[in-house]
Write a structure and sequence with these properties.
The chain is of the alpha/beta class. The protein is built from 18 helices and 21 strands. The protein is about 35% helix and about 20% strand. The mean pLDDT is about 90.
Length: about 500
Amino acid sequence: MKKRALLSVSDKSGILEFAKALESLDYEILSTGGTMKHLADNGVAVTAVDEVTGFPEIMEGRVKTLNPFIHGGLLAKRDNPVHQAQMEEHQIHPIDIVCVNLYPFKETISKADVTTEDAIENIDIGGPAMLRASAKNHAYVTVIVDATDYEQVLAELKADGQTTHETRRRLAAKVFRHTAAYDALIAGYLTDLAGEEFPEQVTYTYELKQPLRYGENPHQKAAFYSKPLGSDFSIAYAEQLHGKELSYNNIQDANAAIQIVKEFDAPAAVAVKHMNPCGVGTGETIADAFNKAYEADPVSIFGGIIALNREVDVTTAEKLSGIFLEIVIAPSFTEEAIDVLTKKKNIRLLTISFEQNKQDKWNTVSVEGGLLMQEPDAFGFKDADIRVATDREPTEAEWEAMKLGWAVVKHVKSNAIVVSDNERTLGVGAGQMNRVGAAGIALTQAGERAKGAALASDAFFPMDDTVEAAAKAGITAIIQPGGSVKDEDSIKKANEYGITMVFTGVRHFKH
C-alpha cells in the first residue's frame, strides 16, 4: 500500500519541489483546490480529496476535508488492532504526511478596507482540524506547517524511509503554536467587534523578532518578540540601518524614547537613559531641538538613546557624532547624515514610521503568576480640565514651559518631577520614594536655570514642602494634578511666593 501525503497550502513557496520529491519516494499525493491545480499543472500526479471521501466540496469550499476518510486516516493508531480493524472495515487509508497552512486571516484583517464578511470567510476550519489531528497523532504522522521544514523532512525520508520521532514531535509542537497563534488573532478580532474590554480569558500571540545576546544582565537569557499587526510607530517595527544588534536594555530604552517623542508635533529630540528622559528639547529645526536636549543634561546623555521626530540631516548628524550614543531613532536619515554617523562602528541607526501613530489598545505588564492590563496613558494637556489655583495667572512663556514639562513628566518613573522652560527640560527627578526628594534631584540638576522655570509633578503634593523647595530654587510656575486634602496649604505657599500654580485634575503615575 502506497504511503500518502496530503498537501493543501495557501503559501505555495517550495510546495512543487516538495511534492515532486515525495512522488519520487513513491508517495501518493492528495490535494485540494488551488494547491491541486498548481501541482497538476506542473506535472505532479494528484488525487483529489473528493475522490478519497466520495463526497464533493460543498458550501463554497467550507466543507471538503471534514470527513472520516480524511480524519480517520490522520488519527488512526497504526499499532492498535481495533483501529486497524476499523480502518479495514471502512476502507480508510492512512495518511502519513500532512502539509497544510491556513487561510491568510492576519493578512486579511491587516487591510485598511477589510470588511467583517471578508475577515470571517478567511477563518480556516478544515486546515486547523487537519493540523491538530495530525499533530495529536505525531507518533505516526509527520505534519508540516512551515516551508522551512521541507528540507529536513525530505532528508530523513531519503535516509531512513521515515522521519524520526524527535522531528515529528518538534513539528507537532510547532503546529500547535501555529494554530494557537491563529486562533488568538481570531479571538482578538471578534472580541474587539463584540466590544468586550475584559473578557473572561485573554490570549495574546507574538512572533519571534530576534534572539538577544542576554537580558538585563549577562546571566539572563532573553529574546525579542513582536506583536502581529502592531503599530509601525514602535521599536518592534523599526528598521535598523547600521550598528550591532540591539540588546534587551536598548529595546526598553528605545521604546521609552519613542513614547516621549510621540508627544510633540514641533521638531523634538529626546534623550533617554535607563527608561527615563535625561533631556528633551524642541526647536525650529531638529538640530536646534537636539542642541536643547543635549544642553538639558550633557553628562547623562553620554551612552544614551536619542529619538528625533524629523529626518536627520548632516548638520544634526555631525552634532550627534560628537558624543557617544547607543542608538539614534528617526523617521529617516539623509545619505550625508548616514555617511557621517556610520563612521562610528557601534552606533545603531533605526528608522520608524511616524506616519502611523497608532497605539495599542491595551498595555500589558507581566507579574509573577499573572498579567496586568490597562489602557495606555494617552491623556494630554488638551484633554485636561485646567484650573489656575493661585492668585497669579501664568504668562504665555510659563504656559508653554508647563505644557512641555507635563508632556514629559508622565513618562518619568514615579515619584516624578520635571523642571523645564518652554524649549527644554532642565532637571528630571525620577523614581523617588517621596515627592520632595524627586523635586530636590530635579532642582539640583537645573541649578541656576530653575530661576523663572516651571515645575511639573506627576501627582499631587501631599504637603507644601515641594512648593517651598521650588520657590527657593526660583521656580515661578507649577503644574500638578491637585486633589490632595492639603491642596490649600500648597496654594497658600505658592501665593506667598508669587508662584502661579495650575491643577490638571489628572495624575500620571508610572511604575
